[in-house]
C-alpha cells in the first residue's frame, strides 16, 4: 500500500506526486523524492523498480521481507538496507522489517508487518529544512535512528523481566514458572541479538573506513547510531550472561529446597516412629512386665511418648529441620 | 553415470554432444559446455579430466566424494567447488556432495549420493538465454543457489522439532524421550553446521576482495548466496543455543519433578504411619487402659484414625503435596 | 553546576574567568582553559557549546550522561570522551560518568552523579607547571588516570568478597546465602566489565597506530593507562572464571551435603526400626513362646534391643554415617 | 640410528652414500640427498648438523623430540618442521614426533618413538621419478601427507567409541563406566587437538600468502594437506561438542534413573506398610471388637490385606512405578 | 639490594664497577654493563635511573613490582620488560617479578620477591664470550629463557596433581576433598595463565614483524622462547579443560554414589520391614488363629521371617543393591 510519495526541493516539500511521475523528479538534479510503501503488493514494488531503476536482487529481497539485517551497496551511488523492528506481542517478540532503497536523490521505504510507521520522522524532517537539505543520507540516518531507538524500550523491558524472576528465585516461589520464564526470556534475547548483531557489524562501515558516498556528509551521525547499537548489544550480552547464571542458580535453589523438604519429612517421621516403638514395647506379651500392672502405667506411657516427642521437636526446631 | 552433456552457443542449446567431442567444443571461443555426472565410475571422471584438462588433485577429490565444503581456484581461470547437500533419512541427516569444475566456458558437475539432481536448474536456464549467455559464472551461481535453497527446509524442520520438544518439556511428559531427542537434534545441528560454516567462509571471497575472474560478472549474485548462508548460519546458532538451554531446563524439570514425587510419597506415608501409631498404642497391654473397656472404644479408635487422616489429607492437599 | 573555570598560561594559573570570557581565552594561542561542571543543567552545557564550539552530537551525549565508555575524535583536533566511574552503594555498583571535551587549548569536564570530583588532580597539576605546560593532552591523561585508579579498590574488594564466599562454601555454611552472594558478585563483575572493556579497546588507539594529535606528546602515558586497564581486565576475567567455578562447586557441596543428611537419617531410622521389629516379635500371640514366661524375659528383650542398637550405633559411627 | 642415506639425481636414485659424503653431494647443483634417522643418538645428529649446515636451535629441538607441531623457516631456503604422529596404546594416545630438515637439495628426517617409518613413501617416490624430480618440496609434501593420513583412522576410532558410549547411555547401562569412558575420550580428543590445531595454523602459510621458496612449486599439494587437516579438525570439534553433551545427558539419565528407583522403592514400601497398619488395628486390645470373634475373622483380615495389596500393585503398575 | 654490577668488553668481564661509574662505562661504544638489583629500595632505583637515563614511567613500574607481564619499547633503542616468576608455596602459587631495562649496551635487572636469582645465567654467559659478545639482546634472551624454563616444572606438577585427583574421583574416595582440590587447582591454573598469556602475546613481536633493534641479531632465539611459551600455554589450556570436565565428572560420581546409598538403605529397610509385618500379623487378636496354637507356631514364624529375609537378601545382592 502506498503511504506517501512526495518530492522535495531545497529541503522543502514541493508536494505529493503521482507514482508515475517519480522518474521525472528523480532526474532533476536539485530534487529529492521520498516514497513510503507498507506491506507491498508485488506490482507496487515492480512499478517502483521501473521508476527508480532498482537492482532486481534488492527488489526481490524487499518483496519477500524476510532478510537478515544488512546494508548493501549497489554500484557507487545506491544502497539497499534491511532493518529489523521488534514487535512485542504478549510473551513473544516478532520481527518486522523495514527495507530501504537509498539513492543520490531518493529514498524508498518498504515497511513490513509493523506499526507505527515513520510519519513522525517525516514531520520532524519537514520542519527542519536545513537538515533535510543534506539529502538522502540524512533521511537514511533519521529513519535508521528511529528504528534503533525502538530497541531500547524492548531491551529495558527484558531487564525488568529478569529482575522480577531474580526476586522470585531468591524468594523461592514457583521454581517451575521461573524455569519457563527464563527459557522464554532467553529466547527473546536471542531474537533481539539476531536483530542487533548483524546491524552492528554493517553500521560500522558507514562511518569508518570506506564510507559509501551517500553517507559521507553525515558519517558522524552514523557513528552515533553505531554507539547506540553497541549499547544495546552490551545490554543484551549482560542479560544473556545473567539469564544463564540465573538458570543455574534456580537449579541450585531447587536442589537446596529439596534437601530441606527431606529434612522436614525426616523430622516428622521421627515424631511418629518413636511413639510407635514405645507402643510396640508395651505391646509385648511377656508375663512379667511390672509397668503393665501399675495403676498409672498407661498415662505414664502416653506421657513418656509425649515427652520424648516434645524434646525431639525442640531439638529438630533448633537445628532448623522443622 | 553420465546424465547430461550439452553444448550452448549464445545462451541457446546447440544440442547434446558425445563426451569425446567435449574438448573440441571447449576450444571454440563462443561455445559453452555443461556436463552432469552422477555417482561416477573412475573411468568417467578420468575421461572428463582429459577432455577438460582438469587438475589431478581436484579430480581425486571429485572421485572420493567426501570433501569438506570448499571452493578452490586452480590457476587464473578455473575453479573446483565441493558443496554439501543434506539428505534427511528418518532421524538422521546424511551428507550428499556436489562437486563442480568451472572453467571459462564449461561447467562439469559430479553429483554424489543424492536426489533430485539439477534438471530444474538447467530447464530454467535454457528458458532464459539472456542469463545463460553470461556463461559459466552464472551457471555456477544457479547451481549453488539451488544447493543453498535446500538447506532452509531442513533447518526449518529442526526448528519445528525443537518447538515440539519444548512443549513436551514444559508439559512434563517423557523426560527420557526428551533427552534422547535433544541429543539427536544437537547432532543434526552439528551436521548442518559443518555443511554451512565452511561454505560461508569461502563464499565471502566470491563477491568481496579478490573475486575469481569467472565470478566477477555475477558477483552481486554471490553476495545474495552469502546472505542466504548467513541466515541459515544464524538460525543454526540460535537453535544450538536453545538446544543447550533446553537440555539444562530438562534437567531442572526432572529434579523438580523428583522433589514433587518425594513430597507425594511422604504424604501417603504419613496417612499410613499415623493410624499405625494409634493402633500400636491401643495394642499395649497395660492392665488399666479405660478406653479399651468402653463399649464404643473400637469404633472411636477407628474414627480417630479416620479423622486424623482426613485432617492430614486436607492440609497436605492445601500445601500441594497431594 | 559550574565547579571551576580557570585559565592557564605557560603552565600557571592566571585566575578564574567568567564563563562568558572563555571563547576569548581559547582564541589566545598560549592560553589554556580548564572548566569543570557537575550534574549540569542543559543551559549550562549549551552555553559551553557556544563558547568552545562543541559538536552538537557530543553535547547531546554529555547532557544525557548515559553513554557507554568511549573516546571519539571530532575533526582533527578535538576529542569527546565518556568514562565510567564505579559508585559502590551497599551491595550494588552504580555507574557515574565523566564526559570530557578536549581541544587544542581547553578541557571541559562534565561530571555526572559521583563524588569526589577532580580537585585533587587540578591541585597536583597546578603544583607541577612543567607538566601542565604540556597542555590539554596531559590534563586529559591526568583525569583519565584518576578515573582508572578508582577501579582498583573496587575490584580488590570484589576479590575479598569472593574469598569470603569460598571460605563459607568449603566451611559448608549457609549454601543459600552463598548462592545469593555469588549471583550478586557475578552481577557486579558484569557492571565492572562493561565499564572497563569498551575503555580498554579505545585506549589502545591513544598510543599505538594513528594517535590523535592532542595525545601525541604524552602517548607513553596513555600506554601506562592501557596497562592499568589490562590489569583490571585480567583481574575481572579471573574473578568471573572463579565465580562460575564457585557456583558449580557450591552445587556439588549441596548435593554432597544432602547425601550425608540422607545417610544420617537412615542411621537414626535403623536405630528405631530394629527395636520396633523385636517388640513386634514379642507382641505375637503364639500360645507357646517360652521367652514370654521367663522371669527376666522382659529385661532381656529390652537388653537385646539396647545391645543391637549399641552395636549398630558403633558401626554407623565408624563408617561416618552418624 | 641411521635408517637410510641415499643420493638422487634427476629423480633417480644414484645409490646409498656414506654419511661423511653428504656435504659433497649437497654441493652438486643437480643432486638431492634424502636421509632418515630414527630415535637418534646426539652424535648422529651433530654429524648431520655439520654435513648439512643446520641451525643449532633446530638441531636442539630435533634432539629433545618434544616440540609442539611447527614449521619454521631458517633463512630463505631451509625449513625445520616438527610433526606429531598419534600412537594408539590401549586406552591412551601417545605422541610420536617426526622432525624434518628441508633444504634446497636435501631432506633429513628424524623419527622419534613411532613405527612404521616412511619406507613406503620412499618406495613410491622412487617409482615415480617425474614427481621426485620436483625436489625437496615434493618429498616434504609426501612425508607430511603420510603423517596427516595417520590421523584419520585414529579420529574415526574415537567416533566409533563415542557411538558405543551413546548406545550405552540411552540403554541405561553402567553409568559409572560411561563417565570414565567419556572422560577418557575427552582426554584423547585433547591430545589429538593439540596435534592437529598448531599444524593447521602453520600449514596455511605453505600455500597462501608468502609461501617458502621450497614449497612454491608444489603449493597446491599443501592446500590439499590443509584441506585434510581442516577435515580432521572439524571432526574433532564435532566430537568434542558431542562428548560434552553426552556427559550432561549421562548426568540427566542418572538423575532420572534415581527418580525411578525412588518410585519403585516407595511402591514396595506401600505394599508392606498397608498390611502392617491393618495388622496393627486388629492387634488392638479393645474389649469389644466384633470382627475378632468371627469364625472367619482371621482369613478375612489376611484376605483384606492381600486384596488391598493387589489393588495397590495394579495401580502402581499402571502408573509405571513398578 | 645491589647484587651485581659488572662491565664487559668484547664478551669478557672487565670487572665489577661502582654504581657511580656506570654512566661512564655506558658511554664507551665497545663496553657493556650488566647490573642486578633485588627487592630494591627506591633510592637504589632512582640512582640507576640517573646513571642509565631510564624513563620515569618504567622506573615507577619497576619500583611497585606488580606489573602484568609486558615488554615495552621506549624510543628506538631501549626496552622495559616485566616477567612473572612462579613461586610455589605449599598449595598456592605466588608471583615474583623480574623487571628488565635493556639498552644498546646495558642490562639492568630488578628482581622482586623470588629466589634463586640469575647468577647461573651470568656464569654461563661469562664462560661463552662469543655469545656474550652479541650484547644486550643476547643477555635479555638468556634471562627470559631462564624465566620461561621455570614455568615447565610448575605446570608439570599441576598435571601430576590432576592425575592424582582423577584417580581419587574414579576410585570414589573423598569427593569433598576432590572438590576442594579441583577448585584450588583451577585457581593455580588461572595464576599461571595470567603469567603466560600476556607474555606470549608480546614475545611474538620480538621475532616476527617490526622487531625491536636490540633483539634483531638474536630474533631466532626469541622464536624459540615463543615456542616454549606456546607449549606451556597449550598445556595450561588442556589442563583447564580437563579440570572443568573433572569437576562435572565428580558431580556425576557424587549423584551416582548417592543413588547407590539410597538403594542400600532401601534394601536394609526391606529386611526389617517384612519381619515387622509378619510379627504384626501374628500379633492380631483374632479368636480363631489356628497357627497360634500349634506347638511349633513360634519357631515356624521366626523361621518364616528368616527365610523371607534370606531370599530377599540374596535377590538384593544379585541386583547389586547390597
Tell me about this structure.
- With 322 residues, chain A is an alpha+beta fold.
- Chain A starts with a strand and ends with a helix.
- The model of chain A has no long low-confidence stretch (mean pLDDT 91).
- In chain A, helix 7 packs parallel to helix 9.
- Chain A has a 7-stranded mixed β-sheet, with helices on both faces.
- Helices cover 58% and strands 18% of the residues of chain A.
- Chain A has 10 helices and 7 strands.
- Chains B and D meet through strand 4, helix 8, helix 9 and helix 10 of B and helix 9 of D.
Keywords for this entry:
homopentamer; 322 residues; seven-stranded mixed β-sheet; 10 helices
Number of strands of chain A: 7
Helix content of chain A: 55-70%
Give the strand content of chain A.
15-25%
Output the helix-strand order of chain A: EEHEHHEEEEHHHHHHH
Shape of chain A: rod-shaped
SS field, number of helical segments of chain A = 10
Oligomer: homopentamer
Mean residue pLDDT of chain A: 91
SS class of chain A: alpha+beta
> Residue ranges of chain A: pLDDT <50 for 5 or more in a row?
none
Strand order of the largest sheet of chain A: 2-1-3-7-6-5-4
The greatest interface here is:
A-C, 42 and 54 residues
Main sheet overview of chain A: 7 strands, mixed
Radius of gyration of chain A, rounded? Answer: 35 Å
Write a compact overview of the structure shown.
Five copies of one chain form a homopentamer. In chain A, 58% of the residues lie in helices and 18% in strands.
Write the layout of secondary structure elements.
The structure is a homopentamer of 322-residue chains.
Chain A (H helix, E strand, L loop, with lengths): L1 E8 L2 E5 L5 H6 L3 E8 L3 H11 L3 H9 L5 E5 L3 E12 L2 E12 L2 E7 L6 H9 L1 H4 L3 H14 L1 H20 L4 H29 L15 H64 L14 H22 L4
Parallel strand pairs in A: 3-7
Antiparallel strand pairs in A: 1-2, 1-3, 4-5, 5-6, 6-7
Helix pairs in contact in A: 2-3, 6-9, 7-8, 7-9, 8-9, 9-10
